[in-house]
UniProtKB/TrEMBL annotation:
Residues 9-77 form the HTH gntR-type domain. It comes from Actinoplanes flavus. GO terms for molecular function: transaminase activity. This is Aminotransferase class I/II-fold pyridoxal phosphate-dependent enzyme. The keyword Transcription regulation applies.
Amino acid sequence: MSAQYQVSGDSAAEISASIEAGIVRGDWIAGAALPSVRVLAGSLHVSPATVAKAYQELRQRGVIETEGRRGTRVRSRPAVAVTRAALRTPAPPGLRDLSTGEPDPHLLPPLAPAIAALAARPGPPQGYASAVTMPELADAARPRLLDEGVPVSGAVIVVTSGALDSIERVLTAHLRPGDGVAVEDPGWAALIDLVAALGLRAVPFAVDAEGPDPEALAAALRSGARAVVITVRAQNPTGAAVGAERAARLRELLAGHPGVVVIEDDHAAELAERQPHCIGPVTGSWAFVRSASKPFGPDLRIAVLAGDETTAARVAGRMRIGMGWVSTVLQRLLLRLWRDEETTELVAHAARTYAERRRSLRAALRAEGVEAFGETGINVWVPVPDETRAVAALRDRGYAVAPGALFRMGSPPGIRITISTLEPAEATDLAGAVAAAVNPAGVVPPMR
């Protein structure tokens, strides 16, 4: 090792801290190889067990990863959102920012009237022992889900602090560090980071316009994945939506793996114009998660989790000895929003608007000879030969888009374009810029 890469420390804690400090300073770039356990132990004059423990701590926190014969390396993507945010450079002033992945603030329903109504009639005070998932909210959630074909008649409903919180709680309720989790590739960046931060092993599987590729998911399950996370619609970043036929194939596949935990993520909820086609419950452990943040605003950090009795009990029990419960103020607020007809229409209007904006861009891209994916949701995925070139070329033309590297593990390159604020009148100019930036030869690259 050269001088600037020297690791110091006599204990596992000191060694792991030294390595992490070096990564933060940039002494090691993403994907760089670390010394083997025996080599580093020899240079530090400590036992191999001490170095192995340091590496184990770093792996469990998602800082490094072990890739078989390739050895131990700095993780190719950051393990926490704060670090990932540093990689996602803010759009410079003057650029049309289509990189955020966030809903249009102007299409979010106003929360002030509902908050004022709650303040006027706050309801009975809640004590520490009685504040849990409100029965009224669970009773309201069940028919809403059933009306869309989500099989929750026999499920237990628990309220959590959003989709990612739900997924984390289910994973930690059933899995242990080192277990494999099958995740979509390309997929939700925060989920990929969460899996690493929990000390779990991400097992990628390919997706297409209909969701998970059954053969790719079968391979992930054969490799030992003990859980799978599937986005039922508005998949981030591709906009994929699981269809009825694909859901049937996935159910048949997963029926042969009864010990696998199946988590279905419905983060877009009411904003997705298609009804969800669920895969579960088909194994012994299942959870369906619906978040309120996309349709009602990022500040409403609340989700309903419907699952089997054991999964729901473990999630609720762990919450009780940690955060306790989701604020009943937030629960009453969500219940009021669900019951308000004007709010319901505003959310429906937003869903129609996003669909029009997404279809306009895809049609304009097709007219330019560029294939793009985005069946539902607020993002469009465009396969490209070279992400760096495409992102830079679009920036030069006045547009900021997200590089696919933020969402990929082994899938081919692409860019994500957020259409939430994109007016249909802008689609033609943007499509021309995309065509010139990513496909000057007129050859359509495959999605996978």
